[in-house]
């Protein structure tokens, strides 16, 4: 196929969220010529995310590999952040002061005991806290809290600050930011060869990196067999802010000293304090397609559970309510690395853990772009794990979205 | 043995109806549904959009499992009727699992609102399968209203407390002219077997499978338990006795 006068680069990254921008930064540091295409970088799932760095608290049965990936990424975080803050001079809000998981009633305590068995089966020893210990650690907790588990190595970061810093670092290392949507992935000779942008211009690249979150599944031009099986999973999240007098009264900024996750009468909620005085409360998990409506019920449920755990939140300013779309895969694990279409590299499907997994994803993908050899350590996260059934599911998905012709650009 | 479940003129060879809430991932749910061998599965209309590609509805379509929309999260008859109508339009089915909940803490059915909603939906041409308390009188009233089945709880949703009032379930089964489906409270396989031994036509469960440590394995356990309980019911249990009876009588 004849391509009109095209700009060229080594790697074209589709999507400038925390994943795409981290890859851009790392790849540019390796000396590759990099471009990132995104009309609104950092305004997708990254903008909504709370920024918890809590691999163990997020772990579920049979998800030991995802946990291992999360642990690895958490170990990379301190260096990743200190390098980022050094080259940009910008803050990221990174802190590593642990997560306290708490139970609200007797049933919740039984659930927490189950959680502990699971977490210890992953080789993580958590400190078990009595109700009194919990309130000594976090004096603003409600007296009815029954007990908790402390994971001291967990942390958090402000994804909105992180996103700004990453963009500056990527551009500072030579990556080019193109504020346009990619309208089509172009293929030539059985290989991904470039992208078409909203203004109809074309960028050809040796590598196309798909880091467009849930929209990675809706991008025209890809053969159906390589479209990653990601779906949007809606999350509503709110941000409260501490006013001057509360701060002056000697309370910790955001009322808490560390991230608190709770089970309240069977429903889960988390509260992430920031040094700025912000307190982030999340999040719903809804299978409603690409819908980003903030609903009364969503916000009410978050406030109901958060207030049960920390009654003092009622005094805070309600600053922001957002709904974002996480890229979910059938097995909750991300899709990282090359796929069966040469030239196409996937970095999507990070679901609830995009911020946590950014360093390991960026390092892994950038190393692949430089060497052409995938890291065997993370082979479990390659797209190849989705077999025939995953493909059927994807075919059904693209029909529902108006039927992208199969392999149109690759024929 | 050919012993199909018959609801409103439709036959199902599986007597295990599954709910889809609570599974840790779509893949885990998919494998559990396969292991359960279920042919009918409830989906909460307030939590799943038919427009959402790649989610639970696609998975059910792919497996050829019939979708039974439910009105979970509704507290009034008016809300439930509205959700049922939206579900009928979106999913092209007039079947609905009717849930009208009294409060968030117990999730018990509100009998007054439930009956009112059932009346309206039956009049509107729906095939109504109401989630009800284990009250034989209410079950009878729901049947008289024209419901296609009655679905009494064993114990509160998600509690896993099993069947707290077996006597009431027996009374409901005895007088019902429509299938009785034990809905809610199943904690483990023996609970499902007991429901079937009591004469229930089917069992509906979710939490006990989706939140089990190994959902796929528990789904298989439930499939076997429902079959075993059904066979035991058909075979007829021996009467309970106070004293022993030698299994090989010395005379005869």
Detail the poorly predicted runs of chain A.
391-411
Looking at CATH, the homologous superfamily of the largest domain in chain A is FAD/NAD(P)-binding domain
Largest interface by Cβ-Cβ < 8 Å: A-B, 30 and 24 residues
> What proportion strand of chain B?
15-25%
Per the CATH scheme, the topology name of the largest domain in chain A is: FAD/NAD(P)-binding domain
Number of domains of chain B: 1
Helical content of chain A stands at 25-40%
- Which CATH architecture of the largest domain in chain A is right? 3-Layer(bba) Sandwich
Mean pLDDT of chain A: 90
- Sketch the major β-sheet of chain B: 5 strands, parallel
Describe what this molecule looks like in 3D.
Helix content of chain A is 31%, strand content 26%. Chain A starts with 6 loop residues before the first strand and ends in an 11-residue tail after the last helix. In chain A, the strands form 3 sheets. In chain A, strands 1, 2, 8, 9, 10, 11, 17 and 18 form an 8-stranded mixed beta sheet that branches. In chain A, strands 5-6-4-13-14-15-12-16 form an 8-stranded mixed beta sheet. Chain A is of the alpha/beta class and 411 residues long. With 252 residues, chain B is an alpha/beta fold. Chain B has a single domain (5-235), classed as Aldolase class I (TIM Barrel), CATH 3.20.20.70. In chain B, α4 links the parallel β6 and β7. In chain B, α3 packs across α4 and α4 packs parallel to α5. The chains are: A alpha/beta (411), B alpha/beta (252).
